[in-house]
């Protein structure tokens, strides 16, 4: 867990926090700003306390729901997932204080308003090619709620696919989801297969899938998917 | 040389050199010219060699070489022109004879002339780059006789005519031919080739083209080949007798091309007589002939091989997929062995053991034997049959021969692990029922399997033999330590080590009290000497010998399975028993119990029980009685031996499933082994490595391998490389 950094980036007064390089500048610690810093971190903490479950010391699912409605964002919005990613949240549905602080600071947001504003930036950041795979991978890990759990059930996988990949690769996701629901070989999707889906969307032309070679190292589930799809469209 | 004193002496010795008498040359030449004439007119005897030689010598010496040479040329030329006329004048048959005669004369003359002019030959000619006399003589002959317009084509035609006549069966004067041809050869290979050989080959090609067309319309394949062979041999003989040896290869190519190469496909595929028919009818001679002829032409043997292969594959495929055949596994395998023997014979006798044909045979067998997924099972059943009874009374060498043949079929199998599974099952049954004909034969086969597949393949099988031996010793020890049991029923126990024997789920069965007591005694004896072990009785695998007395006093000894024994013993205490009662008392599971009762009540000759009603099937409400009217001509009656049988569908599925299950860890082990040593490897290479490692046992399915790889990834044995998605990395 990254320790909550007390360093701030640009002066807190400017409300628009443009896309990071996060935490790059070492601020000159003038005595004048230290007060503001403290004030900001207090704000962050206060915000945390607003939503946290006091007995747990963490924000729980209910708190997150409230947070969402306050932000006027859907609970199932992908940006919430991205927020969790930014916070490097370990447990689905919960934010610890450390995670919260780290995330807010990274987003340069100390008020709810700022947080809302940064969400769109955050989306762009997560979708950036160099970050997306990391986010995508995180999304899967985030769903592994039990200790030692290695796979995510089909139902949840389908939902996750829609959220995470739905707008970038709509037709692939639709087909994949349809297939996952009818196939019987696998009841759970593991990390390797999950990453395979992303690779498939990125590399394979769709819907013809002409450049798919099942003799390559694609996960078996995708071989089967390609066969199924080809049969459906009447090709052999 | 003195000068003043001897002035009166005039040495005139050198006078001749200095005097250049123009007439001298002419005179001398005339002498020589005359001599040449005489020589050509067969009048040489009157000439003085020494004088002529001197004359020639002098001419050259006095620098009249030019005159001499050109004189020679013109004289000879004019003689040759005359000779030419006389040859032209010859009629019909005598043309060649005349030519031959004149040629001989010319050679003799030339010889003499050369001798006379030898000095010129050695001095004037080389220094003036003229053609030497002998060669000159040949060239002049060539130009004036052979290439004379009236002779050239006539000579060629005559020669070709003679060859043609000989080919059509006439006898010709071979000696004469030889001389003429030799003449052409002497005149230079260019003459031989241009004036004879080239045309000879062309005409021959035409001749054989026509003949082969004629033959192929009217002959069948075997006859045609005989004729072709005959012609080929004729040509070779012709060359030996009167052509240049270098022509042999050329003329044989012509024959080969026209008679064989051009008609190969038609011959091979000829209906009712082509290659396939020859193979079917074991026509060794014809096949051998075909082999010898076809090997001379490009792709000849390839053609034979291809046709043989496709025929063999087709036949083999029919053999293994014919539903009639599949009913009898032993017959099935026997037919395969017969087919193999047949082709071994053919390749041996007709194809001179050609290795490429042996390989084609092997490939074909490998192809069709694996078309039928039950081949491994059937081969094991064949062996089982042989080891149970087929090899009875067969000599040791013959046993070896049969087993070696079986091993050959085994090698063709792709799924050797399936064979192993069945072999284990069948071996277990043989050993436990004591039904093997020859222990030596059994062991011999194990050794062969071990040589073929390695120790692991056979270690369990050997374990089974060891168990049998150990059990014998154990039984001896048991009875030695319990002498009081000598009176009661005799117990024979075989203790099987779990890992080595095929697993059979053993089911419940209540043994009659006499037996269970005995079994307990054994159990405590055994566990006394082997602590830490667990024994479980396999009641489904045992058998018993029982003495029975029937209603009319008939006594018989019955050999039955353990289950049957339990049922029969019940009748010592009851006259009538219902199915339900039997079931309750014995606790044998229903399907086995029904089968067991059926074999004792519904089979003629073995019906020691009587059933009411008399139907064939066992109903829950049926009642059973001892069959007092039971009769058999044998004293010892065998009911229900556990014979290895071809599996039923569900059993087959089960076995297949177990084999598949067993393969998974083997694939994984291979994967881990390979990745551990290579560290990083790409997908396709990994698949091929794994396949190579496992091919001794079975052919792994690439999809199955992929599944195993994914399983290993999930369990963190392997990972995919981050950058290159085709690579796998070993995680220590």
UniProtKB/TrEMBL annotation, chain A:
One of its GO terms (molecular function) is ubiquitin-like protein binding. It holds the Pfam family Cullin_binding. Gene3D superfamilies: Cullin, PONY binding domain (1.10.238.200), EF-hand (1.10.238.10). Residues 1-39 are annotated as: Disordered. Residues 39-230 form the DCUN1 domain. One of its GO terms (cellular component) is ubiquitin ligase complex. GO terms for biological process: protein neddylation. Neddylation of cullins play an essential role in the regulation of SCF-type complexes activity. This is Defective in cullin neddylation protein.
TrEMBL record, chain B:
GO terms for biological process: ubiquitin-dependent protein catabolic process. PROSITE patterns: CULLIN_2. Transmembrane segments: none annotated. InterPro entries: Cullin, Cullin-like_AB, Cullin_homology, Cullin_homology_sf, Cullin_N, Cullin_neddylation_domain, Cullin_repeat-like_dom_sf, WH-like_DNA-bd_sf. Keywords: Isopeptide bond, Ubl conjugation, Ubl conjugation pathway. Residues 374-601 form the Cullin family profile domain. Belongs to the cullin family. It comes from the Eukaryota. It comes from Linum tenue. GO terms for molecular function: ubiquitin protein ligase binding. This is Cullin family profile domain-containing protein.
């Amino acid at each position: 867990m990254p320790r909550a950094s007390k360093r701030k980036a640009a002066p807190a007064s400017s409300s628009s926090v443009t896309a990071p390089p996060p935490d790059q500048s070492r601020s000159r610690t003038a005595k004048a700003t230290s007060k503001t810093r403290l004030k900001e971190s207090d704000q962050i903490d206060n915000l945390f306390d607003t939503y946290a479950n006091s007995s747990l010391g963490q924000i729980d699912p209910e708190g997150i729901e409230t947070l969402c409605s306050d932000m006027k964002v859907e609970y199932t919005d992908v940006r919430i997932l991205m927020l969790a990613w930014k916070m490097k949240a370990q447990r689905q549905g919960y934010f610890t204080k450390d995670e919260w602080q780290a995330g807010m600071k990274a987003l340069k947001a100390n008020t709810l308003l700022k947080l809302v504003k940064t969400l769109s930036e955050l989306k762009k950041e997560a979708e950036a090619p160099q970050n997306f795979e990391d986010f995508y991978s995180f999304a899967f890990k985030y769903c592994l709620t039990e200790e030692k759990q290695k796979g995510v059930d089909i139902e949840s996988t389908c939902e996750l696919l829609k959220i995470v990949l739905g707008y970038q690769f709509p037709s692939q996701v639709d087909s994949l989801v349809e297939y996952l629901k009818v196939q019987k070989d696998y009841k759970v999707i593991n990390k390797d297969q999950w990453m395979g889906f992303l690779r498939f969307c990125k590399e394979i032309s769709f819907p013809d899938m002409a450049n798919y070679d099942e003799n390559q190292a694609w996960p078996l589930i995708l071989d089967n998917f390609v066969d199924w799809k080809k049969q459906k469209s009447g090709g052999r | 040389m003195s000068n003043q004193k001897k002035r009166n002496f005039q040495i005139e010795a050198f006078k001749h050199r200095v005097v250049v008498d123009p007439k001298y040359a002419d005179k001398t030449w005339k002498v020589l010219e005359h001599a040449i004439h005489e020589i050509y007119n067969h009048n040489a005897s009157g000439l003085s060699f020494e004088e002529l030689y001197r004359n020639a010598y002098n001419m050259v010496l006095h620098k009249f070489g030019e005159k001499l040479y050109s004189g020679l040329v013109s004289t000879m030329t004019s003689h040759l022109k005359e000779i030419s006329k006389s040859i032209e004048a010859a009629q019909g048959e005598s043309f060649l004879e005349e030519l031959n005669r004149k040629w001989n004369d010319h050679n003799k003359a030339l010889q003499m002339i050369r001798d006379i002019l030898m000095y010129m030959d050695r001095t004037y000619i080389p220094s003036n780059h003229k053609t030497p006399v002998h060669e000159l003589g040949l060239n002049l002959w060539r130009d004036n006789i052979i290439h004379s317009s009236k002779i050239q084509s006539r000579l060629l035609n005559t020669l070709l005519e003679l060859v043609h006549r000989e080919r059509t069966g006439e006898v010709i004067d071979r000696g004469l031919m030889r001389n003429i041809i030799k003449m052409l050869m002497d005149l230079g290979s260019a003459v031989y080739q241009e004036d004879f050989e080239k045309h000879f080959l062309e005409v021959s090609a035409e001749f054989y083209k026509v003949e082969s067309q004629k033959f192929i319309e009217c002959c069948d394949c075997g006859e045609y080949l005989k004729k072709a062979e005959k012609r080929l041999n004729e040509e070779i003989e012709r060359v030996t007798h009167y052509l240049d040896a270098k022509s042999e290869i050329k003329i044989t190519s012509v024959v080969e091309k026209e008679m064989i190469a051009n008609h190969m496909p038609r011959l091979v595929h000829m209906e009712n007589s082509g290659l396939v028919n020859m193979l079917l009818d074991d026509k060794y001679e014809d096949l051998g002939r075909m082999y010898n002829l076809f090997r001379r032409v490009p792709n000849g043997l390839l053609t034979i091989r291809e046709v043989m292969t496709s025929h063999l594959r087709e036949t083999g495929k029919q053999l293994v997929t014919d539903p009639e055949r599949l009913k009898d596994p032993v017959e099935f395998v026997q037919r395969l062995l017969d087919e193999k023997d047949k082709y071994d014979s053919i390749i041996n006798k007709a194809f001179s053991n050609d290795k490429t044909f042996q390989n084609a045979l092997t490939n074909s067998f490998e192809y069709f034997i694996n078309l039928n997924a039950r081949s491994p099972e059937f081969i094991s059943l064949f062996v089982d049959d042989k080891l149970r009874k087929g090899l009875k009374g067969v000599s040791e060498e013959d046993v070896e021969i049969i087993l070696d043949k079986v091993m050959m079929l085994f090698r063709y199998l792709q799924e050797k692990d399936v064979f192993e599974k069945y072999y284990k099952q069948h071996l277990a049954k043989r050993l436990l029922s004591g039904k093997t004909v020859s222990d030596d034969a059994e062991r011999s086969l194990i050794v062969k399997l071990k040589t073929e597949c390695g120790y692991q393949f056979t270690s369990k099988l050997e374990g089974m033999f060891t168990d049998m031996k150990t059990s014998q010793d154990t039984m001896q020890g048991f009875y030695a330590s319990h002498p009081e049991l000598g009176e009661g029923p005799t117990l024979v126990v075989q203790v099987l080590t779990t890992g080595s024997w095929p697993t059979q789920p053993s089911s419940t069965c209540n043994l009659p009290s006499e037996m269970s007591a005995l079994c307990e005694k054994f159990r405590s004896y055994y566990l006394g000497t082997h602590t830490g072990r667990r024994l479980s009785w396999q009641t489904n695998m045992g058998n018993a010998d029982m003495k029975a007395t029937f209603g009319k006093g008939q006594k018989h000894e019955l050999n039955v399975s353990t289950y049957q024994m339990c049922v029969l013993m019940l009748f010592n205490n009851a006259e009538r028993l219902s199915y339900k009662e039997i079931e309750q008392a014995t606790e044998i599971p229903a399907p086995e119990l029904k089968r067991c009762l059926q074999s004792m009540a519904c089979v003629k000759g073995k019906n020691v029980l009587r059933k009411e009603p008399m139907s064939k099937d066992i109903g829950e409400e049926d009642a059973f009685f001892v069959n007092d009217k039971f009769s058999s001509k044998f004293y010892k009656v065998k009911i229900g031996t556990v014979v290895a049988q071809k599996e039923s569908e569900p059993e087959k599925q089960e076995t297949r499933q177990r084999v598949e299950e067993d393969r998974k860890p083997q694939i994984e082990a291979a994967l881990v082994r390979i990745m551990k040593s290579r560290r990083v490897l790409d997908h396709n290479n990994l698949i091929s490595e794994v396949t190579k490692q496992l091919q001794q046992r079975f052919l792994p399915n690439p999809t199955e391998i992929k599944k195993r790889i994914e399983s290993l990834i999930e369990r963190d044995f392997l990972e995919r490389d981050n950058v290159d998605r085709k690579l796998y990395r070993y995680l220590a």
